[in-house]
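STRUCTURE:
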């Protein structure tokens, strides 16, 4: 019987001796209505499209048959080890991957991102969405890049979990600085666990503004967190002794300034949501995620209530010696901010899997004169990009996100 294919089918070329797949690709174009050869094939290894007259060593793996087809039809997810298709992703899978990406943290939950997916080229583009920028907190867009870096990390994790190897390019077009990254799905993934193994934490990670226990973080866990940041070319250090006291003081100073700054108050008013707020609850920090008011303790918590009292909000005692980690880069360019975001998310996912909770301590980073002294001069670290508080405590509360169709365009 002659070979017949549909657009979207997979062409597999096998080694005549071992039967192993030599090359595979997606049939993206037919030259005859009855589906007989030749075909336009986009090869998974090069992403190039060539005209192919399949030889005897080639066969077609049709779409819509077997477990893969059913999974695509229902939008269910497959694990990296079971997924081996080179086909384009279905709309349901693309949407689910972007939903994973948007579970990332962003300053004030402003979600300053937008995604485009090109089915033909199998590439995601991540763009900055300036509607989610914070003019007073973040005039140079550093926090925006960090949030988008975190979303990029989630996308990388989700794509790997879906069974794809991906090539990530930060700032791929120098002429378009708001195009922050491209993620091209190149070929089915082997059995690599990294970063797919982080996937279970993508939707369970939340910022926790609760008190944490004063329990030590074991050395093996600390090492794993240092390694997580290191993989994204970011240095991580735990603040201790005099440096810890100094970081706490700087954060408290930043927080005190924030409470009396009109511009900061305007950003807070825009991005916090009272329980009776009439605005759509798809962005911003809702009152139920503010956490309790600090009575005693040195954990520098941002007060999203801006000093106002909220009826029924409890008070609590926070840690005397919080675990604070600093993430730093040797330079201070947008690409370093994107790296920081990926490192932050990678370490938060890892921390979540280790049973740790986390909150952000960025108050001192928002004031130029407080940012520089944050660093530990003994460690040689250069630009502190992020301070996080880690510990064993309540996992935090899920906060809303914009619906995926508001932040994603799918192109043919
Ligand atoms: C760059 C950046 C700075 C942040 N700064 C703070 C902060 O100072 N205090 C705080 O409580 N949360 C801070 N957050 C956390 C956000 O408020 C949080 O991610 C957002 O509300 C979404 O909630 P989720 O992390 O629970 O998903 C920051 C997040 C990012 C990415």
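SEQUENCE:
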């Amino acid at each position: 019987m002659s070979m017949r294919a549909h657009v979207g089918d997979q062409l597999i070329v096998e080694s005549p001796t071992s039967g192993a797949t030599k090359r595979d690709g997606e049939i993206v174009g037919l030259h005859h209505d009855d589906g007989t050869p030749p075909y336009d094939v986009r090869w998974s290894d090069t992403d190039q499209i060539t005209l192919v007259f399949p030889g005897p060593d080639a066969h077609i793996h049709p779409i819509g048959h077997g477990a893969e087809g059913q999974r695509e039809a229902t939008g269910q997810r497959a694990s990296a080890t079971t997924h081996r298709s080179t086909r384009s992703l279905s709309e349901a899978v693309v949407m689910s991957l972007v939903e994973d990406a948007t579970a990332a943290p962003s300053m004030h939950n402003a979600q300053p991102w937008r995604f485009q997916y090109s089915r033909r080229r199998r590439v995601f583009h991540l763009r900055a969405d300036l509607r989610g920028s914070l003019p007073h907190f973040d005039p140079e867009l550093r926090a925006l890049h960090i949030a988008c870096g975190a979303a990029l990390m989630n996308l990388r994790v989700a794509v790997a979990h879906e069974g794809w190897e991906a090539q990530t390019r930060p700032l791929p077009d120098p002429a378009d600085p708001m195009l922050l990254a491209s993620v091209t799905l190149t070929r089915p993934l082997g059995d690599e666990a990294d970063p797919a193994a982080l996937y279970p934490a993508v939707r369970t990670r939340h910022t926790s503004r609760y008190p944490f226990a004063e329990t030590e973080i074991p050395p093996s866990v600390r090492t794993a967190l240092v390694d997580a940041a290191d993989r994204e070319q970011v240095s991580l250090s735990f603040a201790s002794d005099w440096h810890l006291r100094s970081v706490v003081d700087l954060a408290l100073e930043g927080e005190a300034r924030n409470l009396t700054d009109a511009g900061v108050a305007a950003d807070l008013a825009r991005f916090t949501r009272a329980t009776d707020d009439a605005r759509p609850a798809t962005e911003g920090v809702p009152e139920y995620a503010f956490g309790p008011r600090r009575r005693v303790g040195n954990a520098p918590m941002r007060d999203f209530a801006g000093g106002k009292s909220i009826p029924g909000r409890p008070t609590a005692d926070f840690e005397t010696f919080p675990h604070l980690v600093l993430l730093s880069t040797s330079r201070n360019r947008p690409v370093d901010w994107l790296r920081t975001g990926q490192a932050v998310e990678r370490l938060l996912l890892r921390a979540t899997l280790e049973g740790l909770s986390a909150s952000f301590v960025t108050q001192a980073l928002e004031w130029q004169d407080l940012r520089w002294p944050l660093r530990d001069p003994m460690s040689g670290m250069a630009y502190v990009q992020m301070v996080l508080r880690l510990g064993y405590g309540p996992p935090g509360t899920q906060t809303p996100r914009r619906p995926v169709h508001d932040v994603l365009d799918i192109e043919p």
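REMARK: The two ends are 32 Å apart (CA to CA).
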